Amino acid sequence: MNRKIFLGIAVAALIAILGGILLMGSTMVITPQGETPAETRGITHVRPIQIELAELSITKISERAATIKIAFKISNPNSGGVIVQTMDYQLYATEYSNSEQIAGGEIGSRPTGMISTGSNYYVLLGENDITLKETITLKASQNTFELWAILNDSTTPWRVTGDVFYNFSSLLGGQENELHFDFTK
User: Fold this and answer.
1) Domain 48-184 sits in which CATH superfamily?
2) Which of 104, 106, 172, 183 could pair covalently with 53 via S-S, beta carbons 3.0-4.6 A apart?
3) Rounded to whole angstroms, how far apart are CA atoms 138 and 135?
4) DSSP string of 58-97?
């Protein structure tokens, strides 16, 4: 027989198999927090990840600098994995200012352009959690006398706001999701 006929049959079979997979694949629906998803055949319901402020403490303070440790616990309530790309946060000492942040940062990195092998993202397996930590160093200046007095007070109320960006499938496919948080301590 002719090789072109076999090649044509093989290509047609692959197209039929891929078409069947695409047509019969499951669909993911993300339900808002607090809502109970209705059971529907063929649809996988996905709950958003959960975040909590695990630690916020001043570990060292001197006349020139202050060191603050901050940690966030991110939980995945789903059975499938989640890729946490980045988390942006802002730190406020509410006695100093509720609108002027004293520190902030980003944990992780969002891919831009070509994906590099050294990307800094976190894979969170199903029904597990991860703790993301960072150490912040504040440098003293002539304008920070009031802030330094507040940092020395262990009863200072803190406010931490930010956003977590994550995907449910992979970096290259699936929808990017965002979770906003606002904690007071």
Assistant:
1) Immunoglobulins (2.60.40.10)
2) 183
3) 10
4) EEEE-SSEEEEEEEEEEE--SSS-EEEEEEEEEEEETTT-
Instruction: Please report the pLDDT score of residue 44 as a whole number.
Output: 59
- Give mean pLDDT, residues 107-128: 70
Q: What is the DSSP letter of 171?
A: S
Q: Are strands 129-139 and 43-46 parallel, antiparallel or unpaired?
A: unpaired
Phi/psi of residue 10, nearest 5 degrees: -65, -45
Residue corresponding to tokens 């093989």: 10
The single-letter code of the amino acid at 121 is: Y
Average pLDDT of the chain is 80
Domain ranges of the chain: 1-46, 48-184
In 10 A of CB 17, how many CB atoms?
Answer: 10
pLDDT in tens, 120-132: 778 888 889 999 9
Residue 171 pLDDT exceeds 90:
no
Rounded to an integer, what distance in angstroms lies between the CA atom of residue 118 and that of residue 114? 11
